[in-house]
Structures are given as structure tokens and as C-alpha cells.
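sry for the spam today, last one i promise. C-alpha cells for design, 187 residues
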């Protein structure tokens, strides 16, 4: 009987009473941990869902720009390329009333995902000429999202496209990112 004490119900009633009490405490502890974990997941999921809202962008309008990179912000959540749009004759950049270049920003996926698509700080140094389609901000500020607007097209170094054209028309241009051709602009 001593060999099976603790292994078979009834062999050691004291052991089973203690075991049930421990299991009950353990079960309560697991329930509390689970409740905290579920609560934490809900708290984290709320902002994550809100973070991925694209409501600030006007998905009904698509603009296509050819511009000159001024800088790249390799943020983990969204890589951004800041650029000065080129004039229609492609001989300079658009400027404000004070003669300063107008700067736009295009937001993309995270830096890691963008790097997999060939889009990074290293592949878009300042001075790079490229074309991109974007959905502009509803607020009218000079920025937009590349989401579902096709690939980026990078012109060969120091080779802008012809007047009114984009980098996808330049021989030797490079297509980067997931998506197809540049979209048809709606504005």
C-alpha cells in the first residue's frame, strides 16, 4: 500500500485532499493570469487596430508624383520618403511663394517590409529621382500613403524623365516595391 500511496485515489486520503486543494489554488492562479493576459491583449490590440486605420488618407483620390528625395525616415512602423516634386518640365522642383522647395512625404509599410521590397535609406539617398502614386491626406497637408497604389519607379542617377513623364518611362529605371505600374491619377 505504501508504494501506491499518492498515486491511486483512496490509497492516501490525506494526500488527495491536499492535492485537490493545491489544484484548486493553482487553477485560481491560472485563471487570474489568464484574465490579466486577455486584458493586456485587449489593451494592446485596440491601439494596434487604430494604428492601421487609413481613414486619414483620401482613398478616392490618387496623385502621381515624380520628385527628388530630400530624406528618408526609416521608422519601424512606417518608412517615409520626403521629396520635392519636380516641375512639369522636369527641370527643377516646385517651390512655394518664398522660393523654398515644397516638400511632400509618402508613407509606406514598416522599414523591414520596405527593405524586403528594395526600398530603404540606402536605395533612396538624397537626390534620387523617383515616381510614386499616393493617396493624399484628407487634411490637405503635403503627404500621403502609398498603400495600394503600385510600385515605386526610380530613375537612373541624374536622369529625370521627359517633360510630363514619370520614371517608369525612362530607359534603365528600376521598379521597386510590391504592386504594378504607377496608378492613373484622379486629381
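last one done:
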Amino acid at each position: 500500500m505504501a508504494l501506491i500511496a499518492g498515486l491511486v485515489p483512496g490509497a492516501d486520503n490525506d494526500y488527495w485532499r491536499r492535492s485537490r486543494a493545491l489544484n484548486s489554488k493553482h487553477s485560481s492562479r491560472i485563471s487570474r493570469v489568464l484574465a490579466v493576459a486577455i486584458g493586456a491583449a485587449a489593451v494592446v490590440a485596440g491601439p494596434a487596430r487604430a494604428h492601421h486605420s487609413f481613414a486619414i488618407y483620401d482613398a478616392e483620390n490618387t496623385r502621381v508624383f515624380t520628385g527628388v528625395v530630400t530624406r528618408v525616415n526609416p521608422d519601424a512602423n512606417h518608412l517615409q520618403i520626403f521629396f520635392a516634386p519636380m516641375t512639369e518640365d522636369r527641370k527643377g522642383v516646385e517651390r512655394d511663394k518664398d522660393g523654398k522647395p515644397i516638400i511632400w512625404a509618402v508613407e509606406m509599410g514598416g522599414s523591414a517590409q520596405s527593405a524586403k521590397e528594395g526600398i530603404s535609406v540606402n536605395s533612396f539617398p538624397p537626390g534620387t529621382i523617383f515616381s510614386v502614386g499616393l493617396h493624399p491626406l484628407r487634411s490637405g497637408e503635403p503627404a500621403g500613403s502609398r498603400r495600394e497604389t503600385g510600385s515605386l519607379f526610380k530613375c537612373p542617377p541624374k536622369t529625370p524623365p521627359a517633360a510630363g513623364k514619370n520614371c517608369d518611362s525612362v530607359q534603365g529605371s528600376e521598379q521597386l516595391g510590391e504592386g504594378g505600374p504607377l496608378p492613373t491619377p484622379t486629381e
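Residues 1-9, 33-51 have pLDDT under 50 and may be disordered. ok im logging off now
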